[in-house]
UniProtKB/TrEMBL annotation:
This is Citrate synthase. InterPro entries: 2-MeCitrate/Citrate_synth_II, Citrate_synth-like_lrg_a-sub, Citrate_synth-like_sm_a-sub, Citrate_synthase, Citrate_synthase_AS, Citrate_synthase_bac-typ, Citrate_synthase_sf. It holds the Pfam family Citrate_synt. GO terms for cellular component: cytosol. NCBIfam families: cit_synth_II. SUPFAM superfamilies: Citrate synthase. It comes from the Bacteria. The active site is at residues 258, 307. Keywords: Acyltransferase, Transferase, Tricarboxylic acid cycle.
Amino acid sequence: MDKPTKGLADVVAASTALSDIDGKAGRLFYRGYDIHDLAGRATFEETAHLLQRGTLPNRAELQAYGDELVAGRELGPLVSANVAEIAEKQKPMEALRSLVSLASADDPDRDSIEPEADLRKAARLTAQQPLLVARYHAARSGKGVPESDPALSIAGNFLHQVTGRTPSPREAEIFDACLVLHADHTMNASTFAARVCAATLSDMHSAIVAAIGTLKGPLHGGANEQVMKTLESISPDGVAQTVRDKLAAGEKIMGFGHRVYKTEDPRATHLRRMSEELSGDEPKFYRMSKEMEEVVFETKGLYPNVDFYAASVYHYLGIPTDLFTPVFSISRMSGWTAHVIEQHADNRLIRPDSEYIGERDQKWKPIDER
Ligand SMILES: CC(=O)SCCNC(=O)CCNC(=O)[C@H](O)C(C)(C)COP(=O)(O)OP(=O)(O)OC[C@H]1O[C@@H](n2cnc3c(N)ncnc32)[C@H](O)[C@@H]1OP(=O)(O)O
Ligand SMILES: O=C([O-])CC(=O)C(=O)O
């Protein structure tokens, strides 16, 4: 039997037409479109259509899909009845895991895995996720959520609902591009989790719950929140020393390193620029991030990943730090759901093997002899 590859590094676990990475060149493509061509040009709604429905939409398609997304901006009775108690007891990613699970009971397509049902659920989940985050945040803050504005995009409406103020057009544009940049990323851990679940012919909500639980960890989506906490915990004069000390102590610096990219993550290029642009009157976190980047590269040769500059960008946009990973899930919902659709369309159970390393030939002893 073959030795397992720890962490399944370089193991091809699925075929996909959704996204592709060239880790050496630092390039990312969604259905053949370079991320550099999409970011800042395609809206998140167009990107979600590309992933879930296969093409960049024409005007009529975008109108129809956009209408579906706006109609999906509502929460069912079970979710609405429980959001306050969940907000009291659970942290944001735990809460989202619970709320998405409850949302399946409110969904008219429930556990159907028919292709049309999957498409409808993909749109509804994409529309609901920002609202779930906003409702959660409002419930724990003891405030109401501003009404959804159908004239606003997913990005603009989310910023409006979470910060309580209408974002400037440029802020909405930047946040929209952030959602585009985070939408899909080949066989990352949360997408893999979703596909494993979907491959048992389980339903889309179950697969998404698995994905949310997987995104939550600090080695994956949870890193963006940790980056902000690191920036907030260091004095601006002590960046280089703190980073060197942490590395010398064998600690990982959150927001750096990547399983696939051996050079700069192309998403980080955009996020760095956005962070600089938004840093205006509060340059501290952008400057500290730049310095951290330089020291980590000098000391360890590691590049920032998508989570690194996303942290200061979200901070500058007024998003509370513990909602950074939920924001990631708002975007990645478009990719996860597209992967579930793809998995259901051409399925085989995902069931790898394992290498047994435990005891053998144990002799049974009755309980009193153990
Ligand atoms: C959206 C995303 O999921 S992007 C990733 C978000 N996660 C993070 O930012 C957390 C920090 N980064 C990491 O933990 C890793 O780089 C991962 C999880 C992203 C990739 O992990 P792997 O491919 O398994 O690499 P692994 O953790 O084995 O690291 C390889 C080597 O680089 C070092 N390394 C990797 N990342 C870092 C880091 N951020 N800080 C310090 N050292 C690091 C490891 O210590 C290891 O060194 P060693 O060979 O001397 O033991
Ligand atoms: O691909 C990965 O392993 C992690 C990542 O960058 C992502 O999910 O966006």
